[in-house]
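User: Sequence in, structure out. Go.
Assistant: Echoing your sequence, followed by the structure tokens.
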Amino acid sequence: MLTSTVCAAVSAAGLGIAALTAYRKRFLAATRIAAFSLIPIGLVMTGVIDWVTNIVFKPTVWAGFGVLALSAVLFMISRGVERRRGGLGSRKERKAAAAGRSDAVAPAASAPSLGAARGAAQPAPKGKAAQGKGGAPKDDFSDIEAILKKHGI
């Protein structure tokens, strides 16, 4: 009841200010002031003010907001942990995924593309056959292979 009276008084004061503004020939500003001053009485007439006061003064409503906040925090924590783990569930699944990545094979190859066995089985060619013009090594990609191996590719 008191909130209805206060809102009616605020609306009446706003309409009075709008009338004074219109008297000064500032009609656009007066229209805006009138629009804003009608909001409180409109909220009272629709019942929104009573609904808000019932929410504010009931402890069970605040307990409900607390439960919702706790739920949101738990959800965010679980999402953060899931992102850090990479989205895979158990330890066995992560190991299987890691093992699957190291056995990468090129489309037409019969052995892994850059495995540890390839570097040991095929030493870099030496002598004049590996050199191009001017004595520079022809196909010396050992530094590139080392970088790729370092990144697990």
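User: And one key feature?
Assistant: The helical segments are 2-23, 27-46, 48-56, 59-85, 91-102, 116-121, 142-150.
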